[in-house]
């Protein structure tokens, strides 16, 4: 089974070839909601926010930089 948070082989419609994606992890809406609720109600919940799986993962073509997929983390 492929981990959706790691690079994988994807077809790029712009380059018209298969590439292993380049990833960037960003803080999405779910991350911010959990952060605010964790700080207000349950501070130890914020430990989860340090994990890479709590962030959104954007997959890009390494050749042309086209955004190929966004995988939402956490929620």
UniProtKB/TrEMBL annotation:
Looking at the UniProt record for this protein, which Gene Ontology cellular component terms does it annotate, in alphabetical order?
late endosome membrane; lysosomal membrane
Report the locations given in the UniProt record.
Endosome membrane; Late endosome membrane; Lysosome membrane
Read off the PROSITE patterns from this record.
Answer: LITAF
Where do transmembrane segments lie in this chain? 31-50
Taxonomic superkingdom = Eukaryota
Q: Which GO molecular function annotation, any one, does this entry have?
A: zinc ion binding
Q: Does the keyword Transmembrane apply?
A: yes
Family named by the database record: Belongs to the CDIP1/LITAF family.
Name assigned to this protein: LITAF domain-containing protein
Species: Caenorhabditis remanei (Caenorhabditis vulgaris)
**The organism's taxonomic lineage, starting at the top:** Eukaryota, Metazoa, Ecdysozoa, Nematoda, Chromadorea
């Amino acid at each position: 089974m492929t981990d959706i948070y790691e690079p994988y082989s994807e077809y790029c419609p712009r380059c018209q070839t298969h590439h292993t994606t380049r990833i960037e992890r960003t803080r999405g809406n779910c991350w911010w909601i959990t952060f605010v609720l964790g700080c207000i109600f349950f501070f130890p919940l914020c430990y989860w926010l340090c994990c890479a799986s709590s962030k959104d993962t954007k997959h890009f073509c390494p050749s042309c930089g086209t955004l190929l997929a966004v995988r939402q983390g956490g929620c």
